[in-house]
């Protein structure tokens, strides 16, 4: 019965070209885009969608393609708890200032969190996912972790070449805490990826629409938490937050040293030193 069910489902889905992006379709599109710089049409991607695998096992396409599991819409406060230095968080927030989301890679459990800000819409969610895939792949690159996307092109302008360049650039990474991955992305790298993701998403969006994708809605699985980020206040819409993880806004980067004791400063400089 299971087999029959799957077979019928298979043909049912094959019969139409689904034009809305779900995670498997979107990540395969991004994968093709990064490898070959082409945007596949809905029918091409639908043909490739390995429906049987999705029904029989957990989908780990993201882990396979970009080395991280992408998690959308969690609570930032609950996910990061107290494990994050506030100065670090402030810098991260600064990098994503003009976005409706914040990306946070955890290299120990290979989770790439996308925290959404209040008012994020379909385009922000799609852009965030695209950005998260790029950042994941690039973090794998700086850690010499092999992914299929690195092997696919000899073209000098390709994404694989960008990864190779970042891999050998020492501004791209800082030593991590010695887990699976030994390097964390530097702020310069996060800013750089932010820049290319913004530019590339603008390109890709145009091509997606031209090839017939419907970007007015999406089928990605997004949890409901939203960060109210306007003033860097850690208030979240789904959470009555009494515990504050960040200091008030009045502390700026210039004067933060005065506000920490010496041990803390040492830890911070260790963590943020470039190699
Ligand atoms: C990353 O994940 C590990 C393992 O789940 C956890 O112990 C750690 O606190 C996480 N790091 C951050 C900064 O959230």
Automatic annotation (TrEMBL):
Domain Root UVB sensitive protein C-terminal: residue ranges: 39-227
Origin superkingdom: Eukaryota
InterPro entries recorded: RUS_fam (IPR006968), UVB_sens_C (IPR055412)
Signal sequence, start to end: 1-15
Keywords: Signal
PANTHER family (UniProt xref): RUS FAMILY MEMBER 1, RUS1 FAMILY PROTEIN C16ORF58
Protein name: Root UVB sensitive protein C-terminal domain-containing protein
Organism: Euphydryas editha
């Amino acid at each position: 019965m299971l087999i029959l069910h799957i077979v019928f489902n298979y043909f049912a889905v094959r019969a139409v070209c689904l034009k809305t992006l779900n995670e498997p379709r979107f990540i395969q599109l991004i994968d093709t885009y990064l490898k070959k710089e082409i945007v596949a049409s809905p029918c091409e991607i639908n043909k490739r969608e390995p429906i049987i695998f999705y029904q029989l096992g957990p989908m780990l396409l993201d882990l396979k393609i970009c080395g991280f599991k992408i998690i959308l819409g969690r609570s930032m406060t609950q996910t990061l708890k107290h494990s994050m230095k506030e100065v670090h968080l402030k810098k991260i927030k600064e990098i994503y200032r003009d976005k409706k989301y914040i990306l946070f890679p955890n290299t120990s459990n290979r989770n790439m969190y996308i925290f959404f800000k209040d008012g994020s819409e379909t385009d922000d969610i799609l852009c965030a996912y695209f950005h998260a895939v790029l950042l994941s792949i690039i973090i794998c690159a700086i850690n010499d972790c092999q992914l299929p996307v690195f092997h696919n092109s000899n073209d000098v302008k390709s994404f694989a070449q960008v990864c190779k360049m970042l891999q050998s650039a020492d501004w791209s990474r800082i030593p991590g805490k010695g887990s699976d991955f030994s390097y964390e992305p530097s702020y310069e790298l996060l800013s750089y990826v932010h820049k290319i993701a913004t530019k590339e998403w603008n390109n890709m969006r145009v091509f997606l629409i031209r090839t017939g994708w419907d970007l007015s809605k999406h089928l990605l699985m997004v949890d409901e938490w939203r960060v109210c980020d306007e003033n860097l206040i850690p208030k979240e819409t789904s959470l009555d937050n009494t515990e504050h993880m960040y200091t008030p806004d009045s502390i700026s980067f210039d004067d933060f040293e005065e506000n920490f004791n010496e041990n803390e400063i040492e830890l911070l400089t260790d963590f943020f030193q470039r190699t």
